[in-house]
Amino acid sequence: MAPLLLQLAVLGAALAAVALILISFVAFITATEMPHLHRHEDEKFFLNARVQREALPSIRDSPTKQLSVVVPSYNEEKRLPVMMDEALGYLEERQKQDPTFTYEVIVVDDGSKDETSKVAFKYCQKYGSDKVRVITLVKNRGKGGAIRMGVFSSRGEKILMADADGATKFPDIEKLEKGLNDLQPWPDQMAIACGSRAHLEKQSIAQRSYFRTLLMYGFHFLVWFLCVKGIRDTQCGFKLLTREAASRTFSSLHIERWAFDVELLYIAQFFKIPIAEIAVNWTEIEGSKLVPFWSWLQMGKDLLLIRLRYLTGAWRLEQTRKVN
Question: Model's pTM, two decimal places?
Answer without folding.
Answer: 0.85
